[in-house]
Amino acid sequence: SARSHMVSGAATPHSATHAITLRGATYNWAILRGHKIIENRSMRISSGWYLLHTGARSNSGEAQASIQARVPEGVIVPDEASLPHGVIVGAIRISHSLPLESCSASVWATGPICNVIDAVCSIEVPVTHRGMLGIWPVSEDALEQVRASLGQIRPVDVSRVPPPPSTGAGAVPFPHRKRKTPSSVIVQPLSVGEMGDSTSELERQAAKVARAAKCDLLTASAALVANSMNLSRALSQIQDRAHTRVTKEDGQ
């Protein structure tokens, strides 16, 4: 099952071997300072420590303004261009995951799954590394550099969101999405500038393309990136390649 293939978080920052990439250095800046306490994804992230990576792309001016509006009054968010990109900047501990409707008290909750960050750890010298989708393994060379530069663990105030849900009758269930047949998937274009605070939007769109084209997520993601996040073009590219492959096989 998908759950059995989930990566488990590490017990400590120094034992973390996997990372999470966010687009926009100011989002990670807000996380490491205890402001952004939720990582919004289309999936639940197992509890534990993960390294925090800033993607190569920068946030838009609108995203920067949105972050500034959500941090406490008097806190000045640095300019996106002044922060490093394409680097591992720290580590975060995911305590638990909640459905969006349970996190209405937090300005950082956009869902669909709210993964709660209850502790952070900064790195003195950011470590260059290429990011990936989802939760990805960090190279051994980079891990050595990261572990030599990790600072102290700092707890984060998560009192504005509920504790881990119980498993009893009063537990709030996670939303279940209705599975669509490939013919009913609506493919709509999405510009890179419309991506959210993480790679979760790309993950969701890749899942749409994968269902529609009956291909794996890696193929769908690669097609999306190659076509500047235009779902229609990505789907056409995959279908054209599949048709070409079938034609060649039929001609043999």
Quick gist of this model?
The chain is of the alpha+beta class and about 250 residues long.
Structure overview:
Helix 4 packs across helix 5 and helix 5 packs across helix 6. It contains 6 helices and 7 strands. The chain is of the alpha+beta class. Strands 1, 2, 3, 4, 5, 6 and 7 form a 7-stranded mixed sheet that branches. The protein is globular and about 50 Å long. The protein folds into 2 domains: 153 residues, Hypothetical protein (Archaeosine Trna-guanine Transglycosylase, Chain: A, domain 4), CATH 2.30.130.30; 70 residues, no CATH class. The N terminus and C terminus are likely disordered.
- Regarding CATH, which class of the largest domain? Mainly Beta
What fraction strand?
15-25%
**Counting H and I runs of at least 4 residues, what is the number of helices?**
6
Query: CATH superfamily of the largest domain, please?
Result: Hypothetical protein
Number of domains: 2
Computed over alpha carbons, the radius of gyration is 19 Å
Which structural class do you get from the secondary structure elements?
A: alpha+beta
The amount of helix comes to 25-40%
CATH fold annotation of the largest domain? Archaeosine Trna-guanine Transglycosylase, Chain: A, domain 4
Average of per-residue pLDDT values: 80
**What is the ordering of alpha helices and beta strands?**
EHEEHEEEHEHHH
Characterize the overall form. Answer: globular
Distance between the termini: 37 Å
Largest sheet: number of strands, sense, barrel closure: 7 strands, mixed
Q: Unreliable stretches, pLDDT < 50, 5 or more residues? A: 1-5, 177-196, 246-250
CATH architecture of the largest domain: Roll
Number of strands: 7
